[in-house]
Amino acid sequence: MLSVTLETERLVLGPWQSDDWIRFRPIATDPEVMRYITGGIPWSDEAIRFFVDRQVNLYRERSFCRWKLVEKASGNLIGFCGVGFWRDRLDPEIGWWLARSHWGRGFATEAAAAALRDIFERVKLDRVISVAMPANTASTRIMQKLGLEFQREFENEGVRLVEYAIGRSRYFQAAAPNAAPGPASTASPADGL
Ligand SMILES: CC(C)(COP(=O)(O)OP(=O)(O)OC[C@H]1O[C@@H](n2cnc3c(N)ncnc32)[C@H](O)[C@@H]1OP(=O)(O)O)[C@@H](O)C(=O)NCCC(=O)NCCS
Questions:
Q1: Between the chain's N and C termini, which has fewer beta carbons within 10 Å?
Q2: 131 contact partners, CB below 8 Å, separation of at least 6
Q3: What is the pLDDT of residues 77-99, one digit of tens each?
Q4: CATH number, domain at 70?
Q5: For 45-68, what is each residue's pLDDT tens digit?
Q6: Is there an atom of ligand 1 within 6 Å of 178 CB?
Q7: The pTM is what?
């Protein structure tokens, strides 16, 4: 099987290994990172392992996932960004979490532009949604910058959420000129939320 790696100016987006969960743990247990995910409650080790294994399996089956983000400069795992499946829904959903140390420097937008481009150009999905709490303006701002459009506000398990979406045709018409994150995906011989 070929291994997919996406590269941007400052980041490498790639598949997970099961034992990466331990490097993802500091991010998923930071109450500030988890503020708009769980209300600030850290994920358990079991939830973290489940998330990482879900990405390993999704990548194996579909050749995309919520990519592991590695910062080129440090070699550190600094979060994830990419398409997975939100809860039990069938609509592919793009999402992003970063280590707090890396917020506010455009990393999420840089990663998300590369992931979205890959999902339409290589994977050829028809449509991608994104879901966030309305107060998570950093996240909804990224959605807007990528060209996703507001669809609806809804409630899930007592939590108000907003849903944005973008389809292939809109992506290629409108978003692509703003979403040129660097080299396209590379493939070399060799992997929900
Ligand atoms: C959401 C998250 C990934 C954003 O990462 P980031 O790398 O800081 O985002 P960017 O630097 O690419 O900024 C995205 C946009 O949001 C804006 N923004 C960033 N933080 C913001 C904040 N706290 N409040 C309002 N706007 C904010 C930025 O200014 C930028 O918009 P601009 O280009 O118009 O200036 C990061 O805050 C995070 O990991 N949060 C915790 C996990 C999470 O909530 N994920 C999303 C779940 S839906």
A1: N
A2: 86, 93, 95, 161, 162, 163, 164
A3: 999 999 999 877 889 999 999 99
A4: 3.40.630.30
A5: 999 999 999 999 999 999 999 999
A6: no
A7: 0.91
